[in-house]
Amino acid sequence: MAPRTPDTPTGAPAPLVDRYGRVHTDLRISLTDRCNLRCTYCMPAEGLDWLPRDQALTDDELLRLARIAVHRLGVRTLRLTGGEPLLRRGLPALVARLAELGAELSLTTNGIGLARSAPELKRAGLHRVNVSLDTLRPERYAALTRRDRLADVLAGLAAAQDAGLAPVKVNAVPVRGVNEDELVDLVQFAVDHGYRMRFIESMPLDAQGAWDRAAMLTADEILAALAARWPLVPVGRPGNAPAEEWRLDGTPHVVGVIASVTRPFCGGCDRVRLTADGQLRNCLFATAESDLRALLRGGADDARIERAWRDCVARKAPGHRIGDADFVRPDRPMSAIGG
Ligand code: SAM
Ligand code: SF4
């Protein structure tokens, strides 16, 4: 139960609901658009034009929006992401302040630096982490991320597990001709270490605009590769989670597949996203944003910000329409939205 503060309205917050009856309880917060890797399916080798620091929300601004989300809009889950969220200065202190809101708090990271920060983040109140890892082979990792940092990620995963940031989830984006031959190895690695493996279909959200549907491994292909090694028992989708899950038969281990492209789950979507520069997005694929930073910096009170937030969610489209002929990619890439 979230603690109440003097400016919290009394009673349970009215749900954050859109025209289709979808209730939004999950807020993804991008802490920065910067990154220390250059994953080929995400951004170009030279990086991007990072956000000038004065345009990014300060900790106080971010905290205020998160408090409005939890206390006035019924958000129950806060997920910190980026860019690379571990690059945010003073992250443990920010996590500690966010944890006071009482929501479930998780972090999606590439794992670089996690070996050092995991215990401190756990003490600050972080509940769990998702770590991105597309390959277990050092040369391949260096080619895919354009940085030779596999050992750091493996150490980060182990540290997260030791710190109790559980369940530790491992996210991989399988790409044809890149890591498609490693799906079984990745699952076996997760099983051996007590992590939970999830595969994500690649999406047209790379900064270069080079996404190629033919290079995307589909959920069906991922499952076929795994089924050749383990009989798979469908478990379904826990709540509104984007991942559909399968149990490796005869074991307690579960594998998830996030099939945004071939098995869209828009009908059950419960997410809103806040970019590092304070723009609210009602969908990863939205082509419009609501400028909450302008409201914050213009002196708006909480009720005004709550109204803008509800209006933004009310305008949410029924689905992302990736497969449609008139599909329009959002202006921002995944790394600047917060994946
Ligand atoms: N830097 C952190 C990381 O890599 O986990 C957090 C941000 S990253 C954008 C979040 C997730 O989005 C990662 O699991 C990454 O693999 C995934 N991702 C990035 N670009 C993608 C794309 N074009 N399609 C699908 N997933 C993508
Ligand atoms: Fe960085 Fe994450 Fe994008 Fe890789 S996927 S370049 S780690 S933001």
Automatic annotation (TrEMBL):
Binds 2 [4Fe-4S] clusters. Binds 1 [4Fe-4S] cluster coordinated with 3 cysteines and an exchangeable S-adenosyl-L-methionine and 1 [4Fe-4S] cluster coordinated with 3 cysteines and the GTP-derived substrate. It catalyses: GTP + AH2 + S-adenosyl-L-methionine = (8S)-3',8-cyclo-7,8-dihydroguanosine 5'-triphosphate + 5'-deoxyadenosine + L-methionine + A + H(+). Pathway: Cofactor biosynthesis; molybdopterin biosynthesis. InterPro entries: Aldolase_TIM, Elp3/MiaA/NifB-like_rSAM, MoaA, MoaA-like, MoaA_NifB_PqqE_Fe-S-bd_CS, MoaA_twitch, MoCo_biosynth_MoaA/MoaC, rSAM. [4Fe-4S] cluster 1 binds at residues 35, 39, 42. CDD domains: Radical_SAM, Twitch_MoaA. S-adenosyl-L-methionine binds at residues 41, 83, 132, 203. The keyword Iron-sulfur applies. This is GTP 3',8-cyclase. It comes from Kitasatospora saccharophila. The lineage of its organism: Bacteria, Bacillati, Actinomycetota, Actinomycetes, Kitasatosporales.
